[in-house]
Amino acid sequence: MADEYAWLVCDQGPISVVLTDPGPRPVEAVKVVRRRAGLSLWHSKSLISRLPAIVLEDVTQEVAEATVRELLEAGAHAEVRE
């Protein structure tokens, strides 16, 4: 019952950050992914090589938007998906 109530109050589903293109500076995108997702350098590079890639899953709207903003500043293309 509590889960149902929480779903009704927070009518927003799980939010993910999806990287669609590393852009002209993939090293900068790797740095952002590494910092935001807490992954190792190897895992970050591996994630960026398989696009589209989910960088973060089940995060708040604020965290997702901040991560997308950082990726865009690094020259990458990313989006928030529900």
Could you walk me through the main structural features you see in this protein, from its secondary elements to its overall organization?
By secondary structure, the chain is of the alpha+beta class. It has one domain (13-81): 2-Layer Sandwich (Ribosomal Protein L30, Chain: A). The chain is built from four helices and three strands, in the order αβααβαβ. The chain has helices at 2-9, 26-37, 41-49, 61-73; strands spanning 15-21, 53-59, 77-81. It has a three-stranded antiparallel beta sheet with strand order 2-1-3, covered by helices on one side. The two termini are 23 Å apart. The mean pLDDT is 88.
In short, what is this structure?
Helix content is 51%, strand content 23%. It is α+β, with helices and mostly antiparallel strands and 82 residues long.
Overview features:
single chain; 82 residues; alpha+beta; Ribosomal Protein L30, Chain: A; 3-stranded antiparallel sheet; 4 helices; 3 strands; 23% strand
Main β sheet profile: 3 strands, antiparallel
CATH superfamily heading: Ribosomal protein L7/L12, C-terminal domain/Adaptor protein ClpS
Order of neighbouring strands in the sheet with most strands: 2-1-3
Any low-confidence stretches, pLDDT <50, length ≥5?
none
Q: What percentage of the residues does DSSP assign to strands (E)?
A: 15-25%
- Figure out the total of helices: 4
Fraction in helix: 40-55%
Structural class, please?
alpha+beta
Give the N-to-C terminal Cα separation.
23 Å
Rg, nearest Å: 14 Å
- How many DSSP-defined strands? 3
CATH class membership: Alpha Beta
Oligomer: single chain
Q: If classified by CATH, what would the architecture be?
A: 2-Layer Sandwich
- Provide the number of structural domains: 1
Order of helices and strands: HEHHEHE
**Overall body shape:** globular
CATH topology (level 3) name:
Ribosomal Protein L30, Chain: A
